[in-house]
Design brief:
This protein is mainly alpha-helical. It folds into two domains: 1-100, RNA polymerase sigma factor, region 2, helix turn helix motif (Rna Polymerase Sigma Factor, Chain: A), CATH 1.10.1740.10; 106-184, Winged helix-like DNA-binding domain superfamily/Winged helix DNA-binding domain (Arc Repressor Mutant, subunit A). Helix content is 75%, strand content 0%. It has helices at 2-18, 22-44, 47-64, 74-92, 110-129, 132-143, 148-155, 159-179. The protein is elongated, with a radius of gyration of 18 Å. The chain starts with a helix and ends in a 5-residue tail after the last helix.
Length: 184
């Protein structure tokens, strides 16, 4: 029920923007800016790239909003734009890989914090070694919590393909982690 209300609200904002209300688009940007940034950051592992690609995503969305056909939710449509923006950027700079990690300490002991940081780094590194489609499926399903249907719409493929990419990605990630001494 809440999801439908959210979808209806997004559609109303799109309609309002198309009717001339710039404030409506500002509300959509404010609503989705953080989740889109987080998604893109997980795809790029780079703060500056994530900022730039988030901005490009919203510019592309504003330019293309007239083409939004309401066949999926606005969120799914926007995530597809974000995914395509990331994939296009990755393809254009395939050899350029920069990893930035931020580590926020907490109350745990230094040793366990270091172990968690190392494991997290290995997981991120493992995700980076997946094919683009596997990486996208894993990130959308695990980190962004999208359903198979939503992920299929974002990726522009069938649910079966999403399931295959996700399954193969998780299997490959397990192999990578086992090679590094982690039991999964």
């Amino acid at each position: 029920m809440r999801l439908n209300m959210q979808m209806d609200e997004d559609i109303e904002l799109v309609e309002s923007y198309l009717g001339g209300s710039d404030e409506a688009m500002e509300r959509l940007v404010m609503k989705y800016q953080k989740p889109v940034y987080a998604f893109i950051y997980r795809m790029t592992n780079n703060i500056e790239d994530a900022k730039d690609l988030t901005q490009k995503t919203f510019l592309n969305a504003v330019k293309g909003v007239k083409g939004f056909r309401r066949e999926s939710s606005f969120k799914t449509w926007l995530y597809r734009i974000a995914a395509n923006t990331c994939l296009n950027d990755v393809r254009s700079r395939r050899d350029e890989t920069v990893l930035e990690e931020s580590f926020a300490g907490n109350q745990r002991g230094a040793l366990s914090a270091l172990i968690e940081e190392e494991k997290s780094r290995h997981i991120k590194d493992g995700i980076d070694k997946l094919s683009e489609r596997q990486r996208l499926a894993v990130i959308l399903r695990v980190y962004d919590g999208l359903s198979c249907i939503e992920t299929a719409k974002v990726m522009g493929c069938s649910e079966g393909a999403v399931k295959a990419h996700y399954h193969n990605g998780v299997q490959r990630l397990r192999e990578i982690l086992k090679e590094r001494g982690y039991e999964v």
